Amino acid sequence: MKFSLRLHEKVKEIWEKTHQHPFVIGLGKGDLPVESFIRYMKQDYVFLIDYSKLFALGSVKARELDTMAVFAKLLHETLHGEMELHRGYATKFGITRQQLEETKPYPINLAYTRYMLNVAQNGTLEELISALLPCMWSYWEISKMLANKYPTASEHPLYGDWIKTYSSNEFGSLAIWLIELLNHLTEGKPERELAILEEHFLTTSRFEYMFWDMVYEGEDWPV
Ligand SMILES: Cc1ncc(CN)c(N)n1
After folding, report:
1. 3-state DSSP call for residue 139?
2. Which domain holds residue 21?
3. Is 223 contained in some domain?
4. What is the ipTM score, two decimals?
5. Could you tell me which residues come within 8 angstroms of residue 116 by beta carbon, excluding any fewer than 6 positions away?
6. Measured by CB atoms within 10 angstroms of the end CB, which terminus of the chain is less buried, N or C?
7. What confidence tens digit (pLDDT) does each residue in 117-162 have?
8. Which among 48, 79, 112 is the best mutation to test ligand 1's pocket, defined by most ligand atoms within 8 Å of the CB?
9. Number of domains the chain contains
10. Active-site residue numbers?
11. Which positions ≥6 away from 1 have C-beta within 8 Å?
């Protein structure tokens, strides 16, 4: 069995629960309160600043030039494509770029990025990919699910761009590239190494769910 199938099987229930999360459903139905979306967009912007560094570290750890180049592309796409989506939303809401960048991460946001950066800095390339893969893969699945379940969701004046960006073939092809790279790198690896990768994938899938909850509930620092 391909390793990515094993990973998907492991987190199936968490991802299904994520698909039912009221924030996610609100994006699809178009009735998510705007304040929740603004909170998400600001938290996600600072998340993406740290997240993009994972791709830079992927380039450093890559063993092939072609792999280095795709990590560089992922870094570029995150900084100039995905984050531009957020900057566009911020402009609509009258939030300046400086205000966006100065957003203080909520505890779960901070814990999530610190976990991934720690793995990326101290672990192998396979560990780095396993830790960041739920971000790309789950967003692609969520947005495709929403586009199928709510056929007019992509046309929503506010949330349509979010759904179109993450369900696009361009975004999907980068997720597939990462999945295939991990499948290739894990061929023939011993079980004790695969178990570590599976644990990273499980942990960041849990963080993904908690991130939706965090922005829905507004879980800021308690003191
Ligand atoms: C929290 C989170 N996870 C994943 C993604 C998709 N790159 C994102 N923008 N934000």
Report:
1. helix
2. 3-216
3. no
4. 0.99
5. 50, 51, 54, 131, 132, 204
6. C
7. 999 999 999 999 999 999 999 999 999 999 999 999 999 999 999 9
8. 48
9. 1
10. 135, 208
11. none
